[in-house]
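#struct-help
A.M.: can someone run this one for me? Single chain, 288 residues.
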Amino acid sequence: MTERPLQFGDFEPEFRDPGTARIVLLPVPYDGTSTWVKGADCGPGAILKASYHLEFYDIETDSEVFREGVYTDAPIAAGVEAPEQVAVEVYQRMANWLDHGKFSVLLGGEHSVSIGAFRAMAERVGDLTILQLDAHSDLRDTYEGSPCNHACVMARAKEVAPIVQVGIRSMDIAEKSAMDRRRVFFAHQIQGRSRFDWIKDVVALLTDNVYLTIDLDAFDPSVLPATGTPEPGGLGWYDAIELVKAVCEHKNLVGFDVVELCPHSCHWGADFFAAKLIYKILTTTFCR
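D.P.: on it. Structure tokens below:
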């Protein structure tokens, strides 16, 4: 018997139809440039499996966002080694879904998979800002011989749209010259402030349209330990959720990605965390 391909959420078939679904998820099981713990290529599958255990009713909004239709596309770039080629394949797939009017969500994989999404989005959406939640600044122009390394992802983002960075607490000194500190919210700075104060300041820097890129190492390891490059001193669940709410209230969230889950058998809660995060962002976007 052929096993059914993994989908996000164990919904009825009518809510997984690619023709009628408003939301499309694009898994990218790629881990070609990560530099510490490997395993991010297993992230999309772990998220999809964990999503079957979600409760699909959202208490806060009294809604079930899956009724908008959530289609999970076939994996992108399976078996591809070069990050430059991954960027091309992600770009092509996301561009196709955007051209069909779908709200597109990328599931990594390591962070370099986002480069193609940035390019596809920026070509189709004007007045765009890319909002990054991350432990690392990722502003190297090249790393280990590639401009599409995971350490270069926000350098590539800056080429297509202005960026705002939140949660940063690790970087190389060489990245300082590429960083606009007026648009960076370092983790140590926001930890001492009222959550709603710093969120207000983040939103004030955004343009009307926002693409959100979430590296899961933005979260503190006590909250989400299963990532390839964990850093202490990170965000909590409600830091991220309240920021997303504010973005959706005042701006137009046009798409997002969630990357860098590195599944571990002792930390299966992290898989569920990532799945819940995706579902909550979708709920906040469509069911305010």
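A.M.: thanks! DSSP finds eight helices and eight strands in the chain.
D.P.: also worth noting: The mean pLDDT is 94.
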